[in-house]
Design a protein that fits this description.
Layout (H helix, E strand, L loop, with lengths): L7 H20 L4 H19 L3 H20 L6 H29 L9 H16 E5 L13 E6 L1 H4 L9 E5 L7 E8 L4 E5 L2 E4 L2 E2 L29 H9 L1 E2 L2 E3 L4 E5 L9 H4 L2 E2 L3 E11 L24 E2 L1
Antiparallel strand pairs: 1-2, 2-12, 3-4, 3-12, 4-10, 5-6, 5-9, 6-7, 8-9, 10-11, 12-13
Helix pairs in contact: 1-2, 1-4, 2-3, 3-4, 3-5
Length: 323
């Protein structure tokens, strides 16, 4: 299959789109939702370039530039030097591959029939919604079981949270771990500003009333003096934020949630590092709310990061499960 135009730039742009689409298809073996979505976008761009549509080249150039934009505006954990190296590599990638589709678009623009823009604007809007409106996280621990299993991949809505959505009691949230903001955690909101909370014999009480929690599980028979009777004397090392909560926010045996912050717990209540230990989650650190599980993989409990994700160890019964 060859491009309709014989121009070398059009051929180069066409094959760039085909190769990137093939790589995205291969990535779908490990990350089905994102791999399939980007494979579709690249192959649609290849089809448009083959047909001589100018805007198809613009769309492909935007897709190629996304890693650079992400590196600049969504810096990953690491040193300033490693982030600068990442930006530099992405910039070279964007320049090397983005030149051909933009040049092909310029050449095609001379033909009035190639200037139909609305289908390609729709493609760009779909890509923007996927990239700006959602984020993707993989659960690395068992702290939210059975709601979210270790190895579940979460499609997270971020747009409405950027627009100011207020967390509510019972919401699942994705947030930056306050002790180390390079880490991402998933927990459930159990206390909003103004709430008074305490735990007695594993039962959560809010504003004086017992809270029904059908999602919470307790896997240990014994009662821990701090974990299961909170707040009390920790008797163990806590991060500074945890000690600050115990010293400054406990009133009459209850924790008072301050304005602009939230108290969160894991559903696997006996095996969760949560607000009992490191304090409240600031609203500014909440990134979004999980919508559904788009992938799920069996992992080795002792070394979850060493288990490769693929179709071979997929939990098929977890796919597209709403949260």
């Amino acid at each position: 299959m060859q491009p309709t135009s014989s121009a070398p730039t059009a051929r180069a742009a066409f094959w760039i789109a085909i190769v990137l689409g093939a790589l995205a298809t291969a990535a779908a073996f490990f990350d089905p939702l994102r791999g399939a979505a980007y494979a579709a976008l690249f192959f649609v761009s290849a089809w448009g370039i083959r047909r001589g549509h100018a805007w198809a080249g613009v769309v492909l150039a935007c897709l190629v530039a996304q890693p650079l934009i992400a590196a600049v505006f969504r810096p990953r954990p690491g040193t300033a030097a490693s982030q600068a190296l990442s930006i530099g590599i992405c910039a070279l990638f964007a320049l090397a591959l983005g030149y051909w589709p933009l040049r092909a678009a310029r050449q095609s623009w001379r033909l009035a029939a190639s200037r139909r823009y609305w289908p390609w604007i729709a493609v760009l809007v779909a890509d923007a919604c996927l990239w700006l409106g959602f984020s993707f996280y993989m659960m690395p621990t068992a702290a939210m079981e059975p709601t979210v299993l270790r190895g579940d991949c979460l499609l997270t809505d971020t747009m409405i949270w950027r627009l100011g959505r207020t967390p509510r009691r019972g919401d699942l949230i994705v947030f930056r771990y306050p002790v180390d903001r390079n880490q991402i955690y998933v927990k459930r909101v159990v206390g909003v500003p103004g709430d008074r909370l305490h735990i007695r014999d594993k039962q959560l009480y809010r504003n004086g009333a017992a809270v029904p929690e059908p999602y919470a599980v307790h896997q240990t028979a014994y009662t821990d003096s701090y974990r299961d009777n909170f707040p009390s004397n920790p008797g163990e090392h806590l991060p500074d934020r945890g000690w600050g909560m115990v010293r400054n926010n406990v009133r009459d045996g209850e924790v008072l949630v301050p304005e602009g912050e939230y108290f969160v717990l894991g559903d696997n209540r006996d095996n969760s590092l949560d607000s009992r230990y490191w304090g409240f989650v600031p609203r500014a650190d909440i990134l979004g709310g999980p919508l559904l599980i788009y992938g799920s993989y069996e992992t080795k409990e002792e070394t979850p990061d060493a288990t490769p994700n693929s179709i071979l160890n997929t939990r098929w019964n977890r796919l597209l499960k709403a949260l």
